[in-house]
Design brief:
Elements lengths: L2 E5 L8 H11 L3 E7 L11 H10 L4 E6 L3 H8 L5 E7 L7 H10 L3 E6 L9 H5 L5 E5 L12 H15 L8 E4 L7 H7 L3 E4 L14 H19 L1
Helix pairs in contact: 1-8
């Protein structure tokens, strides 16, 4: 089954509440939240206090994407936030300590998902997959935390077959995610190729949104985009 998570960072930063309540009502599967430290990626993310406030606006599940060097510290900052269902961690930030990271994530009753950057070999997943330590894998269709760049959906289409063969029969087999390169044009071919968890934002559910326009105009366009997304995910 395909799932679609909306990226919180692509919402209206002045008024998260409208967007959160709307996507919850529409039936989006979760909110994807980028946690960034300015070191592992060249940007800063969203404070725990903001995410905790978001969790009181809606009961929609939360999906934390740890783009940080110190995953243990970051998890401790967010562990008291309600509704955390997934924590995604980058293999590149914890080589040799992956199992400890998995244990830390499970200690807050969340599901661990391993993220892998565009240039990283899938062999980095061998022990995690072979020992059924993770509940999913997420590919990056962009360089994480870099604002101006071209997405690489073709790279994902070229590589997904290799990943599926590695995951075959494992816990992670049913959860293959993609962050970046998710658009109204790419969802269908990526889904056909094997991606079943999509992180979307400005190129999909918020495509064509003018944040200066009245909320009812924005809401109408978001609804229209969501109808298209649901058709593409079938």
């Amino acid at each position: 089954m395909n799932t679609f998570f909306v990226s919180l960072i692509t919402m209206d930063h002045i008024n998260f509440e409208n967007d959160v309540k709307l996507v919850d009502a529409l039936g989006v599967d979760a909110l994807h939240i980028d946690i960034m430290d300015g070191h592992f990626v060249p940007r800063y993310g969203i404070y725990p206090e903001i995410i905790e406030r978001v969790s009181h606006v809606s009961n929609i599940p939360l999906d934390l994407h740890m783009m940080v060097n110190d995953v243990f510290f970051a998890i401790d900052q967010f562990k008291h936030v309600p509704n955390i269902e997934y924590v995604r961690f980058h293999i590149e930030s914890c080589i040799g300590n992956e199992m400890r990271v998995v244990d830390k994530i499970r200690s807050i009753n969340a599901k661990p998902v391993a993220c892998i950057n565009l240039g990283t070999s899938f062999s980095a997943l061998d022990r995690l997959v072979g020992n059924n330590e993770i509940d999913g894998v997420m590919l990056m269709g962009i360089h994480p935390g870099v604002l101006i760049q071209d997405a690489r959906p073709q790279n994902i289409l070229n590589d997904i077959g290799e990943l599926k063969s590695i995951l075959n029969g494992s816990n992670a087999d049913s959860f293959i995610g993609l962050d970046g390169a998710v658009s109204l044009d790419t969802i269908k071919p990526l889904s056909d190729a094997g991606i079943n968890n999509f992180i979307g934002g400005s190129s999909s559910i918020y495509k064509g949104i003018d944040r200066k326009s009245p909320w009812d105009v924005q809401e109408k366009k978001i609804n229209e985009n969501w109808i298209k997304i649901k058709e593409l995910l079938r």
